Amino acid sequence: MVAVIESEELQDVVLVGQSYAGMVITGVADRVAERLSQLVYLDAFVPKDGQALADLVGPEMMASLQQAARSEGNGWRVPPLPPQACGVSEEQDVLWMVRRMGFHPLKTMHEPLHLTKQKCTVPRAFIYCNHPAMGFFEGFFERARAEKWNCYELATGHTSMITAPRELASVLLKIAN
């Protein structure tokens, strides 16, 4: 992502990371903050320096993910969650998602994020999808509110881009402007 931003000479980028991608956009902001106008954590993990996803989900969830990798992913990749676990219930949406979902490399979940800057200088926003809530992101939402980020809630499941695209687009446009 850093290479795309640099090679395309992008400026004033509103970078959105959903779920695990909160790890990614945090690292990108550390490397090219001057090219970003906003970070948006969409029902996402918000790591601190030195944290890996494994630190954020806890040992019980990591054990479950490792077991899933052993049983369904040749030991090195984690199968995707069923769409229903992400709040998607409409049959056509479930079928659409299943065709596009892929495995996630297990090792990335153990790799800590190493930040080079003391503090993120990019304005940040958090969108919390609370109905049904995934169970991982409420604490990050509360931290974002305590740190005075722009915070929003959507009454939809984790994959709001599928279950509430208009509402999500409205919030993203508000953030971008």
Would you give an account of this structure?
By secondary structure, this protein is of the alpha/beta class. The chain folds into two domains: 1-51 and 116-177, Alpha/Beta hydrolase fold, catalytic domain (Rossmann fold, 3-Layer(aba) Sandwich), CATH 3.40.50; 54-111, no CATH class. It has eight helices and six strands. The chain has helices at 2-7, 21-32, 53-72, 91-100, 107-110, 138-146, 160-163, 165-176; strands spanning 13-19, 36-44, 77-78, 104-105, 124-129, 150-154. The strands form two sheets. The protein has a four-stranded parallel beta sheet with strand order 1-2-5-6, with helices on both faces. Helix 6 (138-146) links the parallel strand 5 (124-129) and strand 6. It starts with a helix and ends with a helix.
What is the third-level CATH name, the topology of the largest domain? Rossmann fold
Q: What distance separates the N and C termini?
A: 23 Å
Shape: globular
Q: Over the alpha carbons, how many angstroms does the gyration radius reach?
A: 16 Å
* Name of the CATH homologous superfamily of the largest domain: Alpha/Beta hydrolase fold, catalytic domain
Give the spatial strand order of the biggest sheet. 1-2-5-6
**So, CATH architecture of the largest domain?**
3-Layer(aba) Sandwich
Number of strands: 6
Biggest beta sheet summary: 4 strands, parallel
Tally of individual domains: 2
> What is the CATH top level name of the largest domain?
Alpha Beta
Beta-strand percentage?
Answer: 15-25%
- H/E series, N to C? HEHEHEHEHEHEHH
* Class by SSE composition: alpha/beta
H/I helix tally: 8
Q: List low-confidence stretches.
A: none
How much helicity do the residues have?
Answer: 40-55%
Which quaternary structure do these chains form? single chain
